[in-house]
Design goal:
single chain, about 290 residues, alpha/beta, Rossmann fold, Hypothetical Protein, Haloacid Dehalogenase-like Hydrolase, Chain: A, domain 2, 2 domains, eight-stranded mixed β-sheet, about 20% strand
């Protein structure tokens, strides 16, 4: 084993990266992650999901990750901490704007807190479309997922939820509706927007955070907190919300299953999420095998 000392932090996206199409961590990936951890590398799960979801997936690893960067960088914390060490979520004003813009095109949002996910008819359709294509993203019966029936129910959720919202995902049954929705939100100048194109454009959505909040920024805060710089980070991802961390990390690794724009932005490309691409990258770039 010939481990380089340059990389101190390994940032791993979940969906499409560490997770396979059935949202599972393969034994090969789990073993490689543990080997990197035993070699002194801090393991960071860096995802658009919330803390409750990430803890559930972490159980498939051989040991707990060292840090979680969730909601696209809106929150950073140790896995067992009750509250994040760093947080920069959506304001109430921002959530109101998102609800109003969704209503204007007859759709509804998916809103995250650090612990819960609230979603309506549109996001349910999105999940069904993914499932028909063989991709399982979540089980609606799991704790922390809450279906919201209509506009009045959304207002009730906003009023009673004690935690601030971290991010939103917006979907429409007509994929052509996402670009104008993204443009409408962009005009406010207060949102970080990460549009996503899937299956050649058959499915589109946009992830919405507070302006300046993204995975790269969350990792930057964590690297500084740990006495490192982004040059000490390897980041592995596959989608648009991974772009900032791939571009800002010392080594950005794109999955083979990612879109061309993601692969072009990365420093190197590894195998797909169905080929243990994470393990391949760890063996090559961290363990030097």
């Amino acid at each position: 084993m010939n481990m380089t000392n340059q990389y101190k932090i390994l940032a791993l996206d979940l969906d499409g990266t560490l997770l396979d199409a059935q949202s599972r961590i393969t034994p090969e990936n789990a073993r490689a992650v543990r080997m990197a951890q035993q070699a002194g590398v801090q393991i960071v799960l860096c995802t658009g999901r919330n803390v409750r979801e990430v803890r559930r997936f972490s159980e498939q690893l051989e040991a707990a990750p060292d840090w979680l960067v969730t909601a696209n960088g809106a929150a950073v914390q140790h896995p067992d901490d009750r509250e994040p060490a760093f947080f920069d979520g959506l304001s109430t004003e921002m959530v109101d704007i998102i609800l109003n813009e969704c209503a204007a095109i007859d759709t509804d949002p998916c809103l995250y807190t650090t612990q819960d996910l609230y979603y309506g008819h549109a996001f349910r359709h999105f999940l069904e479309n993914l499932q028909r294509r063989g991709r399982v993203v979540m089980d609606e019966a799991d704790e922390g997922y809450h279906f919201v029936e209509d506009g009045n129910a959304w207002r009730e959720v906003i009023a009673r939820e004690p935690r601030p919202f971290t991010k939103a995902i917006l979907y429409h049954d007509d994929p052509n509706a996402i670009a104008p929705l993204t443009a409408a939100l962009d005009k406010y100048g207060i949102f970080e927007l990460a549009p996503s194109v899937m299956y050649g454009g058959e499915l589109r959505n946009v992830e919405v955070n507070r302006m300046g909040v993204h995975k790269g920024r969350g990792l930057e805060w964590l690297a500084h907190h740990l006495g490192c710089t982004l040059a000490n980070v390897i980041a592995i991802g596959d989608s648009e919300n991974d772009l900032t961390m791939l571009q800002m990390a010392g080594l950005g690794v794109a999955m083979a299953n990612s879109e061309p724009c993601i692969r072009e932005a990365a420093d190197v490309i590894t195998g797909s999420n169905m080929e243990n691409g994470v393990a391949q990258a760890i063996y090559r770039h961290i363990l030097g095998e």
